[in-house]
């Protein structure tokens, strides 16, 4: 019954978080304010995620990723679906993310999640 956790795909444990939080009396740790003070950008958030995966010995994203991904909501008036998603164009080198990223903790977590999909795509390309 994965839906008891928060949604049908068990992607969030929001429904039982208060029961399983490891240190319930500790203050929550949200780096959003510090990220903003340090001038983080959506691109920096994805770079940190890429650095995380390469620190584990996995592959860095190819240069095309940085040129072709949509990491922020367009400012030219185009309407886009902002739900984050990762894409494999099945040519062994074109992997992209579409996400209307805001500099905050939630989107940093989503960036790592989506970069995990990209890592998976890169690992099975051969």
UniProtKB/TrEMBL annotation:
Residues the entry annotates as binding Zn(2+) 1: 113, 117
Molecular functions per Gene Ontology: carboxypeptidase activity; metal ion binding; metallopeptidase activity; peptidyl-dipeptidase activity
Single biological process term from Gene Ontology: proteolysis
Residues annotated as catalytic: 114 (proton acceptor 2)
Entry's Gene Ontology cellular component terms: membrane
Enzyme kind, highest EC tier: hydrolase
Cofactors required: Zn(2+); chloride
Pfam families the UniProt entry points to: Peptidase_M2 (PF01401)
Keywords: Carboxypeptidase, Disulfide bond, Glycoprotein, Hydrolase, Metal-binding, Metalloprotease, Protease, Signal, Zinc
Cofactor details (free text): Binds 1 zinc ion per subunit.
Disulfide bonds: 82-100
Glycosylation sites: 67
Top-rank lineage group of the source organism: Eukaryota
Binding site for Zn(2+) 2: 113, 117
Enzyme Commission code(s) on record: 3.4.-.-
Stated family: Belongs to the peptidase M2 family.
Name of the protein this chain belongs to: Angiotensin-converting enzyme
Protein species of origin: Macaca mulatta (Rhesus macaque)
Gene name for this UniProt entry: ACE
């Amino acid at each position: 019954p994965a839906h008891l956790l928060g949604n049908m795909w068990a992607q969030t444990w929001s429904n039982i978080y208060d029961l399983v939080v490891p240190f319930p009396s500790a203050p929550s740790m949200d780096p959003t304010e510090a990220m903003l003070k340090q001038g983080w950008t959506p691109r920096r958030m994805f770079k940190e995620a890429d650095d995380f995966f390469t620190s584990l010995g996995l592959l860095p994203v190819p240069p095309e990723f940085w040129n072709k991904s949509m990491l922020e909501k367009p400012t030219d008036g185009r309407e886009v679906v902002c739900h984050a998603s990762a894409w494999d164009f099945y040519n062994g080198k074109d992997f992209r993310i579409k996400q209307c990223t805001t500099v905050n903790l939630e989107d940093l977590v989503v960036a790592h999640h989506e970069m995990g999909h990209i890592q998976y795509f890169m690992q099975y390309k051969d």
